């Protein structure tokens, strides 16, 4: 029977499934009372870029009596292999089936990931519907932004955590532990969970509908759970903040230390769900931010730090914090990124600090083209603010500005669409005459009304109108020599259906997954025709969910309480239609939203003090003592499935963690001067990877080898180190040939001997391979330096290239089967 590792040879990017990353935790199951699998319903490199899951991972594993492991949605090639072999989806840490865990917690980051939630349950052999599960099955929990309207998943989850999760997850684990000790059944456990603030149990609510399809009532089945109050962590300074990042073996979407400097936003943009459901603003003290960054960099080896919040520029101490961090880490070549800068918060001084990091692109989000429509959405920035920011950015050296707009906002007219084109043109003109020229890219998404916002009652554009407006913008911008990127109309349509959907969508979701819907957030995998089939078979018109909602209508999420006073969101909707501005309560008067009790829950702004970011360690100035050391490195075990570029990153991070005096190149993007050989084929082991490291301070080869080995992961080891001249040839040039050893099954020995002898007599060996989708013919014979069989193994010496095509010919195997051969590079010949 196949084991999980047998699939690593046949899937794309096998490093997604290796586990044992730096920062991961493996606990003994026999020593804990509660086991939890944290599931991210998207591919590994996306999930590893998410800040929430590592936070919960650290919180749960910080409990002596509980453990947390991770699982990400398998790419379709692995899913197919698991289903064919009858193997369940398993966690990364222990390789246990998800069905063996007591709790299975899903992060609902995006509506189009819901099909992956059901698919992951199915792959684990867990019944999809909650009424088919009992105490033998995991408790299925959901959290994240999707939990603010969990109704489309209500038939499949046992409970949802609404709001901040780091405190609630501990109480949830405590409830599971207590319930198991009391030998309770699932119904009793659900009642325990419903008593936790922020935990919603769908089974304890009954939904009825009017004949016209609208929700008639959401009736609680217990007196003490009429509404579910959103959970709020009152003070970030006393909350857990991850300081030991999970460092993947492969490059993730965001490869960096991510530090949350604030939570919540009170700017009041009326389309923004994140801003409304995370109130009030709670800032983390600069001292704690700096300590977190220092600890995270030390144990990760990352070369970039991202300061996260909904509006990083609004952080009250952003100026001194940013300057202090820049001064502290500039010499270490650590970059700082601020991914959410708002036009109104961008001072020239702040932009000057950001400029010192990188100038590859600069993003501004006007959201709407016209002043009137920006007033409707409460954006609070003028056209002149935007143009002045653009002029400053171009003047400071940025070459490209990206403008982000939405179309289909409430009250939008043709004039508002034309204003997008006009504003983008004026922004480009603002860079005229600046050094290097100026360019503007325009990105437009379709407005999707979200629950718990003033626009939750609004209609969403239908498919035909969305496509029509996209076509208008595309043509109009092209005439101005501007590029447009847009979000797929069908994907926005589906997002809108599920964002404001109800429990009846569960049937559609279940049917769509059975039809084959997966990874709906990925354009190449989104199958709109299958969704249409699922809706048709279930007798549901999806367009009905995009309609305008009545102001007195019971909304599917009406029982989820985000803390707003009755009527606040509706008042804000009316203010929007009057173009009335609601000021930010951070600096203006309280808007009366009702979230704060001004005792425990209240705005918390970082206080000004005399503390400064600690300075970098001072190293006595001395002339550079340049040296170059060559390493012989072993790569084996699961790490053999780490690709070449990812292996390079792995080595760079190890050098940073070891604080080695690695020399950097010059230029705008300095890079460590570490030279690697040509790529080793994924899945091939090696005892002879040759890597050169240039240092600006003398280091003994033995000391360098020891320093690297203290930081490299299991499966990677420096075997030898020696000095080479500063101007020696790079490894890729210096290696004249490589010798590979392949174990031969006894029954294949005679046949292989004949093929090897045949090879020796050939003048050419032509093979056809696919390269970038085209068939190309290659002659393998010139690269063959030697081939012989000894001690039951094939030894193959090549001057260049991968051994796999030649092995396929020798063993008479197709490429996918040749990739499974136990190949090991055992030596190289150097100039």
Strand portion, in percent?
15-25%
Multimeric state of these chains? single chain
Largest β sheet strand count, sense and barrel closure:
8 strands, mixed
Helicity range: 25-40%
Instruction: Calculate Rg over CA atoms.
Output: 29 Å
Give the number of helices.
24
**Average pLDDT taken over every residue:** 92
Number of strands: 29
Structural class: alpha/beta
| Principal-axis shape | globular
N- to C-terminal distance: 46 Å
**Low-confidence blocks of residues:** none
Explain the overall architecture.
The model has no long low-confidence stretch (mean pLDDT 92). The two termini are 46 Å apart. The strands form 8 sheets. Strands 20, 21, 22, 23, 24, 27, 28 and 29 form an 8-stranded mixed β-sheet that branches. A 6-stranded mixed β-sheet has the order 2-1-3-4-5-6, with helices on one face. Strands 15-16-17-18 form a 4-stranded parallel β-sheet, covered by helices on one side. The protein has 831 residues and is of the alpha/beta class. It is built from 24 helices and 29 strands.
How is the topology of this model organized?
Blueprint: E1 34-40, H1 44-47, H2 52-61, E2 66-72, H3 76-85, E3 103-107, H4 114-123, E4 139-143, E5 159-161, H5 168-181, H6 186-194, E6 199-200, E7 205-209, E8 215-220, E9 228-229, E10 257-260, E11 262-263, H7 273-277, E12 282-283, H8 286-300, E13 304-308, H9 318-329, E14 335-337, H10 348-355, E15 362-367, H11 371-376, H12 383-395, E16 400-407, H13 414-430, E17 439-446, H14 463-479, E18 483-486, H15 489-499, H16 505-515, H17 528-538, E19 560-561, H18 568-577, E20 627-635, H19 644-657, E21 674-675, E22 685-695, H20 701-709, E23 716-724, H21 731-734, E24 735-743, H22 749-760, E25 766-771, E26 774-779, E27 784-790, E28 793-798, H23 804-811, H24 815-818, E29 823-830
